[in-house]
């Protein structure tokens, strides 16, 4: 990136856009609903099982004016999901301001590892052990989605659930590559602890993005 472009990215006026696409939300509370996804490049959380590792390096994704992102989004859906990578790597206030001005419903999927910026209608917090969420996101999270890769993740899930509000919806979601091993354990856990719900990556079963 050129220096002037980098400055715009750091201010959130441009963002490293990996991809944007219209699809069906596959996970969590809004599963089964149409939404326009905006995937922002850049993440240093580094989950070894991440299925979009190509999103990690922001340098390989073109800095894109947020006005262009919003104009494209308006063509598809009133619900916009900002994801990554880790979108909170960047200042989300300028982008969400423009989306709000356009009358959009704005959701975010985040690990919460960085300061919460922007204005959101729905916050999906998916915390990671490697880099824990910042304290300010727990009280405003609408759903907590913990990825279960091994048995120790159940204890981590309970630790995280203790930090969100009583109105936050709690989900356990099997990591895709290990789902056959972990799903029976998740089902058993939810049946014994019904405050939790099962989340599946239904878009992968539907073979859509």
From TrEMBL:
<protein>
    <recommendedName>
        <fullName>7-carboxy-7-deazaguanine synthase</fullName>
        <ecNumber>4.3.99.3</ecNumber>
    </recommendedName>
</protein>
<feature type="binding site">
    <location>
        <position position="85"/>
    </location>
    <ligand>
        <name>S-adenosyl-L-methionine</name>
    </ligand>
</feature>
<feature type="binding site">
    <location>
        <begin position="24"/>
        <end position="26"/>
    </location>
    <ligand>
        <name>substrate</name>
    </ligand>
</feature>
<keyword id="KW-0004">4Fe-4S</keyword>
<keyword id="KW-0456">Lyase</keyword>
<feature type="domain" description="Radical SAM core">
    <location>
        <begin position="30"/>
        <end position="209"/>
    </location>
</feature>
<comment type="function">
    <text>Catalyzes the complex heterocyclic radical-mediated conversion of 6-carboxy-5,6,7,8-tetrahydropterin (CPH4) to 7-carboxy-7-deazaguanine (CDG), a step common to the biosynthetic pathways of all 7-deazapurine-containing compounds.</text>
</comment>
<feature type="binding site">
    <location>
        <begin position="49"/>
        <end position="51"/>
    </location>
    <ligand>
        <name>S-adenosyl-L-methionine</name>
    </ligand>
</feature>
<feature type="binding site">
    <location>
        <position position="43"/>
    </location>
    <ligand>
        <name>[4Fe-4S] cluster</name>
    </ligand>
</feature>
<feature type="binding site">
    <location>
        <position position="47"/>
    </location>
    <ligand>
        <name>[4Fe-4S] cluster</name>
    </ligand>
</feature>
<keyword id="KW-0411">Iron-sulfur</keyword>
<comment type="pathway">
    <text>Purine metabolism; 7-cyano-7-deazaguanine biosynthesis.</text>
</comment>
<feature type="binding site">
    <location>
        <position position="50"/>
    </location>
    <ligand>
        <name>[4Fe-4S] cluster</name>
    </ligand>
</feature>
<feature type="binding site">
    <location>
        <position position="39"/>
    </location>
    <ligand>
        <name>substrate</name>
    </ligand>
</feature>
<dbReference type="InterPro" id="IPR024924">
    <property type="entry name" value="7-CO-7-deazaguanine_synth-like"/>
</dbReference>
<dbReference type="InterPro" id="IPR007197">
    <property type="entry name" value="rSAM"/>
</dbReference>
<comment type="subunit">
    <text>Homodimer.</text>
</comment>
<feature type="binding site">
    <location>
        <position position="83"/>
    </location>
    <ligand>
        <name>substrate</name>
    </ligand>
</feature>
<keyword id="KW-0479">Metal-binding</keyword>
<dbReference type="InterPro" id="IPR013785">
    <property type="entry name" value="Aldolase_TIM"/>
</dbReference>
<keyword id="KW-0408">Iron</keyword>
<keyword id="KW-0460">Magnesium</keyword>
<dbReference type="InterPro" id="IPR058240">
    <property type="entry name" value="rSAM_sf"/>
</dbReference>
<feature type="binding site">
    <location>
        <begin position="126"/>
        <end position="128"/>
    </location>
    <ligand>
        <name>S-adenosyl-L-methionine</name>
    </ligand>
</feature>
<comment type="similarity">
    <text>Belongs to the radical SAM superfamily. 7-carboxy-7-deazaguanine synthase family.</text>
</comment>
<keyword id="KW-0949">S-adenosyl-L-methionine</keyword>
<feature type="binding site">
    <location>
        <position position="209"/>
    </location>
    <ligand>
        <name>substrate</name>
    </ligand>
</feature>
<dbReference type="Pfam" id="PF04055">
    <property type="entry name" value="Radical_SAM"/>
</dbReference>
<keyword id="KW-0671">Queuosine biosynthesis</keyword>
């Amino acid at each position: 990136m050129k220096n002037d472009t980098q400055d715009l990215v750091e201010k959130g006026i441009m963002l490293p856009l990996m991809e944007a696409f219209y699809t069906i939300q596959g996970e969590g509370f809004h599963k089964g609903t149409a939404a326009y996804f905006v995937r922002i490049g850049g993440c240093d959380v580094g989950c070894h099982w991440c299925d979009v590792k190509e999103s990690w390096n922001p340098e390989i994704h073109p800095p894109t004016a947020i006005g262009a992102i919003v104009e494209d989004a308006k063509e598809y859906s009133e619900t916009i999901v900002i994801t990554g990578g880790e979108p909170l790597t960047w200042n989300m206030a300028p982008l969400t301001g423009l989306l709000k001005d356009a009358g959009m419903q704005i959701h975010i999927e985040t690990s919460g590892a960085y300061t919460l910026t922007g204005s959101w209608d729905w916050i999906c917090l998916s915390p990671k052990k490697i880099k824990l969420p910042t304290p300010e996101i727990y009280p405003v999270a609408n759903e907590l989605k913990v990825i279960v890769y091994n048995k120790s993740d159940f204890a981590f899930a309970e630790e995280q659930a203790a930090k969100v509000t009583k109105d936050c919806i709690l989900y356990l979601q099997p990591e895709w590559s290990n789902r056959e091993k972990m799903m029976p354990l998740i089902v058993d856990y939810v049946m014994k602890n019904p405050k939790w719900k099962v989340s599946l990556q239904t878009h992968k079963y539907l073979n859509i993005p």
